Fold:
Amino acid sequence: MKDQQKLFGGLIAGTLLGIAVGILLAPSSGEITRRKIIDGSVGLKDDLMASVNGSIESLRKQFISKIDQLAQGGKEVVNHTSEKVKV
Structure:
């Protein structure tokens, strides 16, 4: 999980740095530069949303897996206890 957070943080930092350097080095008028900033922001928002949605889906799968494991463990305990009571 921590590796995913580091990767996600690096992705955001790299994207922001790339946008900033590109804007500063581009010989464009103010209107064009503002349009580039808006477009870059929209792209960053879309990337962030995709990353967040992917993380949520991953967490959901992990949660379901843990619940299934706990349910299976509970069934095994009940079966074992039931057999002990019968004897």
Summary: The first helix runs from residue 2 to 25. The chain has one domain: 2-86. The mean pLDDT is 83. The radius of gyration is 25 Å.
